[in-house]
Amino acid sequence: WEYACRAGTNTPFNFGETITNKLANCNTNYEKLRYYRNETTTVGSFQFANAFGLYDMHGLVWEWCADPWHKDYQGAPDDGSVWETGGDNHRRVLRGGSWNFTPDMCRSSSRSWNESDGGLRISGFRVSMNFWDWINCC
Prior knowledge:
4-stranded mixed beta sheet; 2 helices
């Protein structure tokens, strides 16, 4: 997920060092930003895609990942595959932050978790597929 979000960048957000309410839907009702939508927005509302063409990687809704929760990255696979061994199989990783979380929780590297059988109105899925499968099928 983080590789897709960063799209070759190494900044906190795939569009730079800081986030604004014109770039993502997150809770910016703090300090100088003072704006909070208090709800989800339509995908693509901010008309900004990262270098891979992905919209709304920061904020909007937390995105469920297949990985079980691990407290850190020690022992994580380095090939982008799902980290299926170890971890807490009752919890799954969430990435990307959401509309009701502060900008620091919407950074490319930020992650959280929820119970595997739990539901949140601030979470959702990003459907994806292998690039070569897409090329061959479409």
